[in-house]
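In this supplementary section we document a worked example of the pipeline. Step one takes a protein sequence of length 344 as its only input; no multiple sequence alignment statistics are reported here. Step two produces a three-dimensional model, which step three serialises into structure tokens for compact storage. The input and output of this example are shown verbatim.
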Amino acid sequence: MQNKLLLYISVCFVLLIGVASISLKLGAYSFEDSSLWQIFKNELSGNGLVSEMDHYVLFNVRLPRIVMAILMGSAFAVSGTCLQGMFKNPLATPNLIGVTSGASLFAAIGIVLGGHFRSYLPDVLNYSLISIMAFIGAILTMTFVYRMSTTRRKTNVVVMLLAGVAISALAGAVTGFLTYLTDDEQLRDLTFWTLGSLGGATWLKNGILVIVIFFSYILLLNKGKALNAMMLGEEDATHLGIPVEKVKKRIIILTALMVGTCVAFAGAIGFVGLIVPYILRLIFKSNYHIILPLSAVVGSILLLIADTISRTIVAPSEMPIGILTAFLGAPIFIAILIRFKKNL
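The serialised model returned by step three reads:
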């Protein structure tokens, strides 16, 4: 089993490297030197043969964006996989249960109302105010949904989805109200959060993402066996020695941390946490020992492909990536509902 898992991950990594190489080459700007390998070689040798524009586009625009797509795609996919395993339902994703909406709402509050109290905050908090607000929104939303839908250690899926719908509706209404209070710059920022984009990728943001995701993965990626046991029922999992409540709290906090950070940097990008586990479940059934680590790589591939399409399909303009992931995710969501209907 372990050898097969390593083989699957290796194949996915090779595919990811291939997609990243293609993505580096594609775009509205064409490099003066057609060989990216030659550009990297010249850059490392320091011979001065790389033009300033080639250097800027490659190292300050495309590479940071590709890295951000890889990191965020992985984070969204793992978050969705963990939530589906915890709630024992394929519809439990950060987007559908309102976590993304909650994070976006608090980020919007930080954008519009942050100016009223920024002067009272230290510089470190000022710089990361929106990120902190997005994380607070994600953790509050996740806690609310979990408390609402869980009674006597049993999760009511209908209540879970209805709570997500309610939060999404409330978040949309408050964000709409905040739109009337904004100036032009704040309105552009709000539009960015609503539609989602990786256009603001920087190496600093990627560094923060690496720290958050690395810390989260240390505590999450080894929970495949625990999620498999929880699929049997929480009481049975407890009898098997799984600390169910500890695992659930860890999933809630860490998925909220990852989703909140991603939303703070790129806005609302939905359905990645729904698409990836669904595809992997078709292949590997509900074996989270395989699905969970694989989702970390497949999510990167999916979002990287989506971002590459979003910035090239209408070049030199850019289609918001949230629109593209919604186009991909909505049919899969319908397919899941159809399968549920047949099983009734």
